[in-house]
Structure formats: structure tokens, C-alpha cells
Amino acid sequence: METTQTKLQKPEAMIFDMDGTLFKTETLLIPAYHELFDRLREEKMYEGETPPEELMLSCLGMLLEDIWRKVIPDCSEAVHRRADELLLELELSGLKEYSTELYPEVKETLEQLSRRGVRLFVASNGLEHYVKGVAETHLIAPLFEGMYSAGEHQTASKVDLVRLLLDNHGVSSAWMVGDRSSDVEAGKKNGQTVIGCAYAGFGNGHELAGSDVLITSFNELVTLYDQAEDSE
């Protein structure tokens, strides 16, 4: 656990990214990704080899439209939108078919935080049915007061999504917990503490620059919370 010198204050709420923070995304995404390109080839919308899966994983945390611009930049907008549809369809069926995983201790840690009275939320750049589907499949949905997704709220950035969440639920102090630079930005630009998750390894070394604390396992959140000062 790496911390800055700033003493943390106990938050009223914690806001979690989904992919690479709560959910071990590659357990679902990799098989769905390969199937998606098989389908695009069948539909004559894509030719050639499937782009490297590492490229897709490096885009986690981005909005879908930005992901396809990076993964299949030479394809038309129509192909990108069809890829959106297929990915959602394949991921939702994959949640039932594949053996997908949360990161270790996620459910137990969320339950402990909830028992301590922390209000729990999700803020993800993913699609609504995907984000809610992951939470429901892994039996953590009831622990969250709200699950916000860019797909549902049509926000242009995670900064806007988190601002909407804070406003809608009257939250004044929160820890933003995530693994990408978009999570750091969303926390900081909304005046909140940022806990960077350094265990997923999808981003580069600079992704979490600016975080108040870096954690290497999810269950460190309980210790951090217990050691934090009571808010005045």
C-alpha cells in the first residue's frame, strides 16, 4: 500500500469503477472479443485477423466509441456500432456461460464496508446492462445504492458521470476507487479522494499518477477506512 502524506478522512461513500477494479474483466472479455470478430467476419463487416487482445485490454476504462477507434480505426462508424451491439450481446450471454471472476475479496470487502455504514456506488464507462449484469451475476448488486454507467446516462466523460452521481445522491465526501487515469481524473475534478487499484495491470505505469493511495489488493480498503480520521 502506497500513500501520500495526506491523512485520509473517512468518506461518506465509496464509488467504484467496474472493469479492472471489482471485476476481472478478461475472464469475460477475451472469449467474447474473439467471438465478436468471428461474427463480424461472418457478416462481411470485417476482414483479416482479429486485432491483438492486448490492444483491447489496454483500452479498458475508455468509452466504447473510443475503444473501437483505437482497436479497428479503419472501419466505418456502422461497423463500430455493430461491434457495440455484438459485444453487449456476447458479454451478457457470456456471464451465464463462462466462469467469470471478481477480484479476490471483493464481495467480502464490500460487505464489510457496508456494515460500517459506507454508502457504495458504481461509476463505469461501460454499457448499462453489462455493468448491472456483472453485479447481478456475482451477487454484489444489492450492496450498491446506485450503479451509474456512461451507457445509461450518456455522459461524455467519467468526470461528468461521477458529478451526476454525487449530485443525485447528495454525497459530499467520497473515495473514488479505480484503476485508470479516467478514475483519477473523475475523483480529483470532483474534489474527492482517489484510491488507485494497482493490481489489474491493464494500464501503463502513469495511469494512477495523482492517486492519494495505491492499493495492491482490494481488501486493503477496509484497513484504510478503519485507519482514516473521522470527518468533522
From TrEMBL:
<protein>
    <submittedName>
        <fullName>MTA/SAH nucleosidase</fullName>
    </submittedName>
</protein>
<dbReference type="InterPro" id="IPR023214">
    <property type="entry name" value="HAD_sf"/>
</dbReference>
<dbReference type="InterPro" id="IPR050155">
    <property type="entry name" value="HAD-like_hydrolase_sf"/>
</dbReference>
<dbReference type="Pfam" id="PF13419">
    <property type="entry name" value="HAD_2"/>
</dbReference>
<dbReference type="InterPro" id="IPR036412">
    <property type="entry name" value="HAD-like_sf"/>
</dbReference>
<dbReference type="InterPro" id="IPR041492">
    <property type="entry name" value="HAD_2"/>
</dbReference>
<dbReference type="InterPro" id="IPR023198">
    <property type="entry name" value="PGP-like_dom2"/>
</dbReference>
